[in-house]
Specification:
With 248 residues, the chain is α/β, with parallel strands linked by helices. It has a single domain, classed as Rossmann fold (3-Layer(aba) Sandwich). Helix content is 40%, strand content 15%. The chain is built from seven helices and eight strands. It has helices at residues 27-38, 50-62, 80-93, 118-143, 167-186, 205-210, 226-232, and strands at residues 2-3, 18-22, 42-47, 69-72, 99-102, 149-154, 192-198, 244-247. Strand 5 (99-102), helix 4 (118-143) and strand 6 form a beta-alpha-beta unit. The radius of gyration is 17 Å and the shape is globular. 41% of the residues are buried. The structure holds NADP nicotinamide-adenine-dinucleotide phosphate.
Length: 248
Amino acid sequence: MQISTNYNIKNDELKGKIILVTGANRGFGRAITLDLAKAGATVIMLGRDLGALEVVYDEVVDAGFAQPILYPLDLEGATPEHYQQLQEELSDQFGALDGLIHNAGILGTMMPIEQYDIKLWHSVMQINLNAAFMLTRALISVLNKAVAARVLFLSSSVGRSAKAYWGAYGVSKFALEGLSKTLAEELEATNISVNSLDPGSMRTEMLRAAYPAKNTDKIPLPESKSPAIVYLFTDDSKGINGEKLSLF
Ligand SMILES: NC(=O)c1ccc[n+]([C@@H]2O[C@H](COP(=O)([O-])OP(=O)(O)OC[C@H]3O[C@@H](n4cnc5c(N)ncnc54)[C@H](OP(=O)(O)O)[C@@H]3O)[C@@H](O)[C@H]2O)c1
């Protein structure tokens, strides 16, 4: 299913909504954070670098948008206990969680499977897939308490159609697509909707790492795509569930 990036964010349309974004400190996560906060949502900004999270926090507050909450956590080292603690803190502070956006990820390396570094493979799987599984698993109970909660997994074209040398990254995105669909089926009769999204190319550090020799000047900035994410958390997108989304 394709959705438009051409969405006009209305002030306060997400007022009172609590939405957690992983990898909120730069790239697409930063753009998503700014736009969700612009729409009035309280964004729980999860990231491993507190200083970098604080920079975006200041940007949000200086713009006059809804004040976010910082949640420093390294998804590579996080254990089930860390996710349990997050669940308890969310439950105590807000009672319910309206949205969960699995945006954080690492590229790993572009390499034939035969030569792929095994330690790096595990790191990519831990951050891109296992962390998303553990985080979701821990937070279903607080998502269940929201009137209409949404979970979004950031995928990629190489997680829908295999491409040589994308290694652990592509495989982790295929697995995320499976996780998204399985979860959507399991939660079909609940208030929680679950989708995956391939955002297409965006001019971020990840893109530059994937295509070091490419001139990326004409590739769209993440800010041009983040309004579509706001749309996915508004009432206007009600009923979108179990979809593999992409943007136009
Ligand atoms: N850019 C594209 O063209 C493109 C295309 C298709 C899909 N996507 C997907 O879109 C999402 C965002 O991509 P992006 O381009 O914005 O990537 P990016 O610029 O590389 O940003 C990745 C984010 O993930 C965070 N992260 C990485 N490892 C982490 C860890 N161990 N714990 C916590 N946070 C961690 C990074 O934090 P640090 O600053 O601490 O490293 C950063 O905030 C990803 O899921 C990516 O796969 C991107």
